[in-house]
Amino acid sequence: MAQPLRLRPPDDAEFAPFGRWIRPPRNPGERLDLGFALAARDDAPTTSRAHVNHVRASALPLTVTGLEQHPRAWQAFLPFDITRYVVVVTEIRPDGGPDPARLRAFLVPGNTGVAYAPGTWHAGATALDRSGHFTVLWPRAPYPVEDDPMDTIRAALPDAVLVGP
């Protein structure tokens, strides 16, 4: 079996092609504007949406079998009561699909959120240690249809990938 994809700490420069890490302000009275996460890529009609999800706990090593992308909009996850979680992203192949050879995995502390840029291939929300919740900011079509290619695209990886410490 192949070596697991190693988890790395969140790094702003390394993650920049995929989106950005969301860290709370350091000083009292400061605010972090998350308006960028509510913007769509094109002029297609979208509605700013926010929801809270419940994510079951996973254990390392993780097995990743597929990824998803949202071609027109950012998708931001703000940990609500998560101790730590895993973010898996990859680059886009010339045909538009995910590039399994260029996967990256990050071990993210529960005080840091993640915002995926439009079109970023990523794994679903994965909490470690215990089940928890994320608040999700995601501009979507006014009446999204599951697997609408302008809203969400899913792709299976040719081989399952282990993600470990």
- Radius of gyration, in Å, reads 16 Å
The fraction of residues in strands falls at 35-45%
Average pLDDT metric = 88
Assigned CATH class: Mainly Beta
Kindly give the count of domains: 1
Overall spatial form: globular
Q: Could you characterize what this model shows?
A:
The protein has 165 residues and is an all-beta fold. It has a single domain, classed as Sandwich (Jelly Rolls), CATH 2.60.120.480. 2% of the residues lie in helices and 42% in strands. It is built from one helix and 13 strands; from the N terminus they run βαββββββββββββ. It has one helix at residues 12-15, and strands at 5-8, 19-22, 50-55, 57-58, 62-69, 75-79, 84-90, 104-109, 113-116, 121-122, 126-128, 132-137, 153-164. The strands form two sheets. Strands 1, 4, 5, 7, 8, 10, 11 and 13 form an eight-stranded mixed sheet that branches. The protein has a five-stranded antiparallel sheet with strand order 2-9-6-12-3, with no helix packed on it. The longest helix is centred in the first third of the chain and has 4 residues, at 12-15. It is globular. The mean pLDDT is 88.
Keywords:
single chain, 165 residues, mainly beta, Jelly Rolls, 5-stranded antiparallel β-sheet, 1 helix, 42% strand
Secondary structure topology:
Elements: E1 5-8, H1 12-15, E2 19-22, E3 50-55, E4 57-58, E5 62-69, E6 75-79, E7 84-90, E8 104-109, E9 113-116, E10 121-122, E11 126-128, E12 132-137, E13 153-164
Parallel strand pairs: 1-8, 1-13, 4-11
Antiparallel strand pairs: 2-9, 3-12, 5-13, 6-9, 6-12, 7-8, 7-10, 7-11
Outline:
The protein has one helix at residues 12-15, and strands spanning 5-8, 19-22, 50-55, 57-58, 62-69, 75-79, 84-90, 104-109, 113-116, 121-122, 126-128, 132-137, 153-164. The chain has 165 residues and is an all-beta fold. The strands form two sheets. Strands 1, 4, 5, 7, 8, 10, 11 and 13 form an eight-stranded mixed beta sheet that branches.
